[in-house]
Write a structure and sequence with these properties.
This protein is an alpha/beta fold and 212 residues long. The protein has ten helices and five strands; from the N terminus they run βαβαααααβαβααβα.
Length: 212
């Protein structure tokens, strides 16, 4: 079983996808880490994340250690990830990796094009969203919790810029799959979002597998 969880930044898709994976006994993959790690490798090399050649080389040379780095979050990493994700050669380099992960044992994958490109045949697709203002508030609190200084207005502006870049790119833009169930978490906490998602899964699948 593959469950696709897509949506914009700070909508709660990562938290939700991890909980769904645990509840269903499935592996979990945050596909955004692949793009973040690619972007970080490009920055480390002193190159521009918008440079197709540098970004594609970084994607082809990713290692498991790259995904475990501690500097894959924050505004610089966010924008680098969004920039490399717009490059067709990067997406091609990472596509087979994601598909093999899901096909091996089933999985819950979260990202921005899981239901539209990576696993368009997935039996369940969720598109998790929330208002830009609420997502910016969550991101601000997350940064504060990590001890990172942040300005709420700047956080909102950066999030909106990331949204625009993700939605307007020519390759795999951020859009709900035609058959995705849209889950708006603006007014939902993590528990309520999980309950709503489980209800949607039962509606689509009937009886659900239990974690082993």
């Amino acid at each position: 079983m593959v469950i696709a969880v897509d949506g914009p930044a700070a909508a709660g898709k990562g938290t939700l996808a991890r909980r769904l994976a645990a509840a269903l006994g499935l592996p979990y993959l945050d596909t955004g880490l692949l793009y973040r790690a690619t972007g970080r490798r490009v920055l480390d090399a002193g190159a521009d994340p918008r440079d197709p050649e540098a970004a594609a080389a970084a994607a082809r040379n990713l290692t498991p250690a790259d995904l475990a780095r501690s500097d894959l979050r924050g505004p610089e990493a966010d924008m680098a990830a969004s920039a490399v994700a717009a490059i067709p050669a990067v997406r091609a380099a990472l596509l087979d990796w994601q598909r093999e992960f899901g096909r091996r044992h089933g999985a819950v994958l979260d990202g921005r094009d899981i239901g539209t490109v990576v696993f368009p045949e997935a039996p369940v697709k969720l598109f998790v969203t929330a208002s830009a203002e609420e997502r910016a508030r969550r991101r601000f609190l997350e940064l504060q919790g990590r001890g990172t200084a942040a300005d709420p207005a700047q956080v909102l502006a950066e999030l909106q810029a990331r949204d625009a870049q993700d939605r307007q790119r020519a390759v795999a833009p951020l859009v709900p799959a035609a058959d995705a169930a849209v889950l708006d978490t603006t007014e939902l906490d993590a528990e309520a979002a999980f309950a709503a998602a489980m209800a949607l899964l039962r509606e689509r699948l009937g009886e659900l597998p239990a974690a082993q």
